[in-house]
Prior knowledge:
Layout: H1 6-24, H2 29-38, H3 48-73, H4 78-101, H5 109-128, H6 133-151, H7 154-174, H8 177-181, H9 183-203, H10 211-228, H11 231-242, H12 255-276, H13 279-299, H14 305-327, H15 345-359
Helix pairs in contact: 1-2, 3-4, 3-5, 4-5, 5-6, 6-7, 7-10, 9-10, 10-13, 12-13
Amino acid sequence: MIVYEKKILDNEILINEADTLYKGGFISKDQKKFVKKELPAFRSQDNILVRIGFFLLGSMLYSSICGAISIIGMNAENAYFQICCYIFAAVGFLVSELLAKQNYRNHGLDDAFILGATLNVGFAIGITTDGSQSVIAFFMAISAIYMFMRYLHLLSMLVFCITVTSFLFFLMFELGDIGRAILPFIAMIFAAILYFLTSKLISKLKESYYYYGLLLANSFCLVLFYLSCNYLVVRELSEELLGTEVKPGADIPFAFFFYAFTFVVPILYLVQALRTKDRIMLWVSFLGIGFSIYTIRFYYAVLPIELALTLGGLVLFAIAYFSIRKLKEKESGLTFKPDRINHSDAILNAEALVVASTFGMKPEVKPQDSPMEFGGGGFSGGGSGESF
């Protein structure tokens, strides 16, 4: 399924490991360059600004190709309009394949054609089905997951997560008011199922090529699960989709559940992240706690904003201070100390030990003082003096 050669994918992993070792101080810059020179790799761009520039250039190239095709096809008028987006999508798939064969990956040019092909699939299905939103989302999701599995394109995995969620939402909208009313619970169940499914796939993954895409989908499920039953999201969508108006002194149905969900889920995320040492879940929990506080303050302003910010800052300062005091001496697990891959005295000592063991060097050992004290003796004497 993957279009790239497995050897080059493995080389990319080794190059990334070499870059990590260089940042950690294990190897020198010359050694890092030597690794990159000896291992064939993809044509890619690590600089995000340069990659965006190539993406814009690729988008212009894609548009130029589609424009040239349109000049030829304009004579067919309405018939061409019905099929033009299918042709544009085919161009995107074809050029993406050609760029992949030339080892373009995460370069910017390939991003333009991969995303453009998926977008044109949506346009084409929309023209054919007269704008059926659920059908558009369904086929865009299929196109996006194909692009990810074929080209290991992370942005396509993100597009898949968004479109498959949109497909679920549009299906529920088609059920009418009942579907809109139970949408939060359906979204919550969907996010939970997809989370455990991606976690299972990650645990059983034999090849690491799909790891980051599955991790992205897994993290997306955490966010979707929390937002699905967040009180602010549910209340605002209820007013928007169902046309309900929450009058003063009233509240939405199952308000107690949504209140509890808004605060309990981020705390559960935090506990689970600390238990499993999951950094992504930890950041999601922090963002969730912050959004939960914003949710309540959006409807109930208990304190003036100046006082609330001051008290919040004091609480955060106290948490940070006592956390640092508690964790700064720990060497393993949850610790305040920098990662072992960063520069530190321990890393430098480890490097010295590695070099010493490689070349058979032994550390200098100071000899134990002899209990017998020898005399003076000058020049090359054996320690005897001039007198008894």
